[in-house]
Design brief:
Elements: H1 5-17, H2 20-27, H3 31-45, E1 50-53, E2 56-59, H4 61-84, E3 93-99, H5 106-115, E4 119-125, H6 128-136, E5 142-145, E6 154-169, E7 179-180, H7 182-185, E8 190-193, H8 198-209, E9 216-220, H9 223-231, E10 237-240, E11 250-255, E12 261-269, H10 276-283
Parallel strand pairs: 3-4, 3-5, 7-11, 8-9
Antiparallel strand pairs: 1-2, 5-12, 6-10, 6-11, 6-12
């Protein structure tokens, strides 16, 4: 028995939504209809794709492998549909961005939405490693990252750069000069982003080059968590100047002997460069 498009579509939406009921709502079908399509798919190939644990639906190892393929399959289907509707001025559907710092493209997103109100934009957050992983697994369409790797499967557009600065709780740094060497900052505990953060990698490399062994007291995931821990007095944090949000309780610190600029770039998969929504957003034509 051949695998059908309906079966793959039902499986894909259950995997994406994490449940049969949510998949049924998304597809405008009944839950029994979705369950039947998945059951037929599993029976036709004698494979278990989901584990049902009470109300929870989890992908098996075979299900994970198939889901990786259906993400690519339905992305190509969307591209084919876009190809035949490319002459229409209106864009619809969704554009998924994953960004290390969404403020770098906030203005562009606003202009883009003003011109294409039928397009829903979804924004996720993540460090450089997360951004690239989601692009390559077809879980995102466009990424916003720091140093974009020069790899053949990626297409990038430079967004400029800004220096890396430190910041700390103002009352903990009452008599410090405006510019402080990295060695002096290493006398304080540091709050650092998770492994995979490009800012962290650059600061740690600079510290190693100077023979410093800073006390990384707290490791957090995400920029908001970093800011919250510094505000609580957890230590010194590091961020690009463009991403720093002033606060009366905080003090931004220029690092006297660190001149590293943190680049930012848009990035997408080169094989998806002609998807109309991706192409339009990446082109920067709306900037003019």
């Amino acid at each position: 028995m051949a695998v059908t498009h309906k079966q793959l579509r039902a499986f894909h939406h259950v995997a994406r939504q994490g449940g049969f009921s949510r998949a049924a709502v998304e597809l405008g079908l009944t839950q029994p209809a979705i369950s039947e399509q998945v059951r037929r798919l599993e029976m036709s190939r004698d494979v278990l794709l989901f584990e049902r644990r009470g109300k929870a639906v989890l992908l098996t190892q075979a299900g994970e492998a198939l889901y990786a393929m259906t993400k690519r399959y339905f992305a190509v289907e969307a591209e084919i549909d876009a190809y035949f509707t490319d002459r229409a001025d209106a864009l619809s559907g969704r554009l998924r961005l994953v960004a290390d710092a969404a403020q770098h493209v906030a203005d562009r997103i606003t202009r883009f939405r003003a011109r294409y109100p039928g397009l829903r934009i979804e924004i996720q957050s993540g460090n450089t490693a997360t951004v690239l992983a989601r692009l390559r697994s077809y879980d995102a369409d466009i990424g916003v990252i720091g140093a974009a790797p020069a790899e053949p499967d990626l297409l990038t557009q430079d967004l400029g750069s800004s220096p890396i600065i430190a910041f700390g709780l103002r009352k903990s740094l009452p008599s410090q000069p405006e510019r402080i060497p990295l060695a002096a900052l290493a006398k304080h505990p540091w709050v650092m982003r998770e492994q995979g953060s490009e800012t962290r990698a650059l600061v740690e490399r600079a510290a190693a080059e100077r023979g410093l062994s800073p006390d990384i007291a707290i490791e957090v995931e995400g920029r908001e968590a970093l800011r919250a821990m510094v505000l609580s007095g957890g230590g010194i944090g590091f961020i690009s100047a463009a991403e720093y949000s002033p606060d009366p309780a905080l003090r931004a610190i220029d690092i006297a002997d660190l001149t590293i600029a943190m680049p930012e770039a848009l990035v997408c998969l080169a094989v998806r460069r002609d998807v109309r929504a991706i192409r339009t957003f990446m082109s920067g034509a709306l900037e003019a």
